[in-house]
Amino acid sequence: MKMSDQIAAQIRRMIARGELVDGDWLPTEAELIERFGVSRPTLREAFRLLEGDSLVTIRRGPPGGARVTLPGPDAVADLFGMILMLSGTTIGDVWDARLTIEPPAVRRLAESATKTVIKRLDAELDTLRSVIDDPREFGKAGVRFYVRLVELSGNHTLTAVIGMLSVIIERELAKSLVEIGPDSDEVRRANRRALRGYEKVVELIRARDSEAAESAWLEHMNSVRRYVAKTQKQDHVIDLLY
Predict the structure, then answer these.
(1) Nearest one of 234, 233, 193, 232 to 216, comparing CA atoms
(2) CA triple 50-54-60, angle to 5 deg
(3) 186: which residues sit within 8 A by CB, 6+ positions away?
(4) Which of 11, 52, 168, 216 has the least CB density, counted as fewest CB within 10 Å?
(5) What is the mean pLDDT of the chain?
(6) Class of the domain covering 3-68
(7) Per-residue pLDDT band at 150 (split at 50, 70, 90)
(8) Residues 6+ apart with CB under 8 A from 175
(9) Which residues form the HTH gntR-type domain (predicted)?
(10) In a 3-state reduction of DSSP, which class is residue 197?
(11) pLDDT tens-digit series, residues 178-188
């Protein structure tokens, strides 16, 4: 293994162990060169590897340096989506994956929700209400709400998966919006129905009615799926290039 790879691996481990956290600056080049006993070009190659992993941001020019920037699911969402597209994944397949992930996550969330979690959900609802008359922004806020439900359920793996799927979900909803017409009465009615669905599931989570919350979210998702199916065939392969 090249020395630059070894240095990058050591810094990755430091980040993974929490020795370096989001926003921390790495020591100066001079300090790192002395610590690792390498040349400046080797150290900078290690920095480029970490930058390629979206683990650091490089500030070039004096004073320069590298800052830890922990990536979220969106950092690999485009690549993940491209892999699905190239493997012939259909929109229906994506919906099936969501139906497998989201309703059970909502059930877990209702079983474990704290006052802090409820406040965060209420904040998401306030955001949705504030953009109800802007179909494009409402669609984006709705996708964020889906991701937040899974995130707050506490499973990091499922949060990462739904976070990566969110780029596909958002683009498909945006495509449907263009097909139907963003200013149409149909879209505005659909958004108001969606908001009522979001409000209903939050109230059920607040009441800790896990079974009803899961059923409500399943019903909401099937409703949205039928709506999207009006403009798109569920068996067509996802296309992230339009």
Answers:
(1) 193
(2) 65
(3) 180
(4) 52
(5) 88
(6) mainly alpha
(7) very high
(8) 231, 232, 242
(9) 1-71
(10) helix
(11) 777 767 788 88
Residue 9, token pair as written in the block: 């691996």
Written as one letter, the residue type at 161 is V
16: exposed, middle or buried (Cβ count in 10 Å: 0-12, 13-18, 19+) = exposed
Residues near 114 by Cβ (< 8 Å), separated by ≥ 6?
Answer: none
- Tell me the per-residue pLDDT of 59-100, one tens digit each, with 9 for 90 and over: 876 666 889 988 776 677 778 888 888 898 888 898 899 999
Across 152-160, average pLDDT? 92
The 3-state DSSP composition of the chain as helix, strand, coil percent (nearest 5) reads 70, 5, 25
Q: Which residues pair with 237 in a beta bridge?
A: 90
- The answer to whether the beta carbons of residues 120 and 135 sit under 8 Å apart is no
How much is the pTM? Answer: 0.76
Distance of CA 100 to the CA centre of its chain: 17
Domain ranges of the chain: 3-68, 74-229
Q: Indicate if the pLDDT at residue 52 is higher than 90.
A: no
Q: How far apart are CA 142 and CA 197, in angstroms?
A: 11
* Phi-psi map region of 54: left, alpha, beta (phi>0 left; psi -120 to 50 alpha): left
Region of residue 48 (phi > 0: left; psi between -120 and 50: alpha; otherwise: beta)? alpha
3-state SS of 25-82 is: ECCCHHHHHHHHCCCHHHHHHHHHHHHHCCCEEEECCCCCEEEECCCCCHHHHHHHHH
Q: Which residue's structure tokens are 């994956």?
A: 97
